[in-house]
Each structure stands twice: as C-alpha cells, then as structure tokens.
Amino acid sequence: MPRRAKPAEAAPAASILDLEDLLSKASQGDRDAFVELYDRMAARILGVIERILDHSAGSEQVLEDVFADLWRESRSGWNGEASVAAWLVFRARRAALDRRAGRTPSSAKPAIARGRFAWLPEAEAIRRIEQRRPLLAKVLNQLPREQSASLDLIVFGGRAENEVAEQLQQPLAKVKSELRAAARFLRHRRHAVVGSWAVNI
Amino acid sequence: MGCQHLEDEYELYLLGALSPGAGGDLELHLSAQCPNCQQGLREAAESVYWLVQSAEPVRPRPVVRSRLLARLAEPRGSERTGGARKR
Hints:
The structure holds 2 protein chains of 2 kinds. Chain A has helices at residues 19-27, 31-53, 59-75, 84-101, 111-114, 123-131, 133-140, 145-155, 161-168, 172-194, and one strand spanning 3-4.
C-alpha cells in the first residue's frame, strides 16, 4: 500500500525550483535527471491521484503513466517556459478523473488536457506560489463551508456545476453564484499572497 | 472584445466544471485569440494548481519507481501509452 508522506517528505517548495532544468536534461536522454524529478514530485502527484480515486487500487498505475507521459513529452519538445509541476498536476488530475469515469485518457474534455501546453502557468509563477504555500493553505481554510464543499466536488470529484447542485440538492443558480464568488476570492487572495497587495490572512 | 463578464468563469472552465451549454462565449473569445481571456486563463490556472495541490502527499511504493525506470529504458516508439496497461 502507498503510505501517506510525512510533511518533510512531500517535496518542499525549494525542491520544485529547478524541475525545468531536470526536464531539460531528461529531454537529452538523461534518465538520472528524470528520476530525480520523479523523486521530488511523486508523493505530491500521488496525493492528487489518490484523493480523486479515493485511495482505490490503480492510483500508482496512474502515477506511473503520468510520469511516462512526461518523459515522452520531454523527448518530443517542451515549451521551456511552462511549469513542469503545473503540467504534472493538471495531467494527473485529468488522468485520475478519466480512470474513475472509465474513460480512455485521450477523451479528456477540457482544453487544458487536449492542448499540450495551452494556458499552463509559467515556471516562475508556480515558484511564487510554492514560496507562499503555507499561507495559501491558510487561505483555503477561509472559504465558506458551502463554497469549499462545492469546490471539492469539482476539483477532486470531477463534477460540473449542475452536478454539484444536484448532489448538494441546491438551486443551480445558487451553486453557480457561490462558485464564482469562491473563484473571485481565491483570485484576490492569490494576488495578495504572491503579489504585493496588502491583506491580513 | 469585452470579456469582463467571463472573468469568473476561467477557473471553472479549466476544471471542466461549467454546466453543459455554458462556456460558449468564452470558447468564442479563445478561438478569436482574445489576449485578455488567454491571460485570464493562465492566471486562473495558477489558482487551479494551488487548489489541486491542496491534496495531502502520499509516498508511492518503490516498485512504481522501478517500473517507471524500466519504461524509460524502452526504445523510443515502443513505449506503452498511458493507461493502456493492466496490472
């Protein structure tokens, strides 16, 4: 059984700083660099996959497939500015949701999964987020409970907003309104935490 | 193109969470290469990254690393495609 990582084992912010350098080496066929990248990120990525698959069998297979996909991507040309950590997180979420729904990976629905690097944050943007990780974790706890529950169903349950409304037995208009409010709140707080806005958190 | 009304939809779009039939306006802006929407999506992706990364890390068993290493050693073109293999 996979085991829950202790906080110290879970890729601290500093360890994602040069993932792009490692991938660049991997693109030249350097397997050691790729394995180091795996060692730094695997626990984080498996955490995402297990949360989506609810700790069912098959999580580690998805993890392996996601990293094998990254290896292939690195060999076929990588957008040098795109964040490797962000690529892994988006791909892992999509792959786990696909597995849960019994879909083949190629039928993933959002554009981010179809386009190889479309709208992926740049490495520098993700570095800024990682440097503020503890503060950002606090921010998530500030979301109102109903918004947090709806977001959870979307992020880790793969639900659409109409399905969230159905599951929570709430009017669709209310759910839509709350989700948009949550998105605004997160955007504002992200700007405040990683940017220069003044805010008390 | 005015796109202020789309700003609150970027995160939901990236998460594949917009209701069926919604998101058409945003798709139009994106297919027209709207710079505001492209930038908005890129920034929204930072929020989505942060949300998804809130999952608690789980350490994989060493055998996963070994299997991955074996796959990396396969010649290009013969690698198995993701999800195609059964354990």
